[in-house]
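Hi V.,

Quick status before I head out on leave. The structure for the redesign project is tokenized and pasted below; the design run finished overnight.
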């Protein structure tokens, strides 16, 4: 879909006077500014660009301030997952009476909706345009702020906005999407609908991933964009599981990009979860991953990561103290996401999985 055409139709429908635009450097680099500026020129527009990867509470609070001081009728977010999550959280929290942290930590109930929000991703990865979650880091701990009002009113998928992505960002964001699709498939919250989204996402992503990273063509970019969106729709229902739960300390303490961090444990979790998954689900997932056995499926993911230049061990990423990372992950693991995993992970199981990828 052409984002300019779709945004024009949305603006004609919503009839805003003031538009608050959340955007970072990707707004210009992706070609979105060239496409969307002519569509927005008839409106009073303010840009909020104080956005860094992995949104912090302080970043969200600045976004809330922008929402309150400008008073938009419509919010538009253009960028990767951090931009979309910042816009989603700031827009909703600006409409509440209490402190932002009290809602993020679920100490207070959300009472009001935010302004209508248009989410336009410039990466093929997080699926944030399709979810009712927003990532917020408070004191280096990752919180998954969750509420149905966080789901954007409009999601605009324009693969052209991903054409300029460098290989490493394509690899990282695509790995996040693939992991989301797989995790949603085996999640304890999975439904027939979420499994169908997962199925479609995997079928789009796997044959196009290496092409999109190493020798991108429009068809591969389109497949990755659609696949990432479908993976987002899958986790919006089923939520993520152990791979995401274990990944956050890698990002916070060692600077490993989110999608890459999630992918590190994905092969091991395929084999680990295989022992308790329902036979029909396991057989289907293994086939979707181009394999005949869980071990072969796990190896396919490792090979894929190597083909797109993503390290598959902690040591390759400069993490040289196994005991330290084991204790760090055990201390900071996201227990909510861990609880969605089809097989229980005790502390010794987590230590063993980290040892295998060391």
């Amino acid at each position: 879909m052409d984002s300019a055409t779709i945004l024009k139709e949305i603006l004609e429908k919503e009839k805003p006077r003031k538009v608050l635009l959340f955007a970072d450097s990707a707004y210009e680099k992706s070609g979105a500014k060239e496409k969307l500026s002519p569509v927005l020129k008839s409106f009073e527009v303010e840009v909020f660009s104080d956005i860094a990867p992995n949104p912090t509470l302080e970043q969200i609070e600045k976004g809330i301030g922008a929402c309150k001081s400008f008073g938009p009728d419509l919010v538009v977010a253009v960028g990767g997952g951090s931009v979309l999550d910042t816009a989603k959280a700031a827009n909703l929290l600006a409409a509440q009476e209490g402190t932002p942290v009290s809602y993020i930590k679920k100490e207070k109930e959300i009472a009001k909706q935010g302004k209508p929000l248009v989410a336009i991703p410039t990466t093929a990865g997080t699926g944030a345009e399709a979810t009712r979650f927003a990532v917020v880091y408070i004191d280096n701990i990752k919180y998954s702020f969750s509420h149905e009002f966080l789901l954007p009113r409009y999601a605009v998928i324009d693969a052209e906005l991903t054409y300029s992505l460098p290989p490493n960002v394509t690899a990282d964001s695509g790995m996040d999407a693939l992991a989301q699709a797989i995790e949603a498939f085996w999640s304890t919250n999975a439904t027939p609908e979420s499994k169908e989204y997962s199925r479609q996402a995997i079928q789009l992503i796997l044959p196009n991933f290496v092409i999109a990273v190493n020798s991108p063509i429009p068809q591969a970019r389109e497949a990755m964009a659609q696949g990432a969106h479908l993976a987002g729709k899958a986790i919006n229902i089923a939520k993520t599981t152990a791979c995401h739960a274990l990944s956050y300390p890698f990002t916070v303490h060692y600077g490993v990009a989110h999608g890459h961090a999630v992918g590190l444990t994905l092969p091991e979790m395929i084999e680990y979860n295989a022992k308790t998954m329902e036979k029909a689900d396991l057989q289907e997932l293994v086939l979707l991953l181009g394999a005949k056995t869980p071990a072969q499926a796990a190896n396919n993911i490792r090979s894929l990561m190597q083909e797109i230049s993503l390290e598959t061990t902690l040591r390759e990423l400069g993490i040289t103290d196994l005991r330290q990372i084991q204790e760090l992950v055990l201390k900071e693991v996201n227990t909510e996401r861990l609880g969605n995993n089809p097989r229980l992970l005790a502390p010794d199981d987590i230590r063993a999985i980290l040892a295998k990828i060391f």
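Above is the designed sequence. The chain is about 55% helix and 10% strand.

G. will cover questions while I'm gone.

Best,
W.
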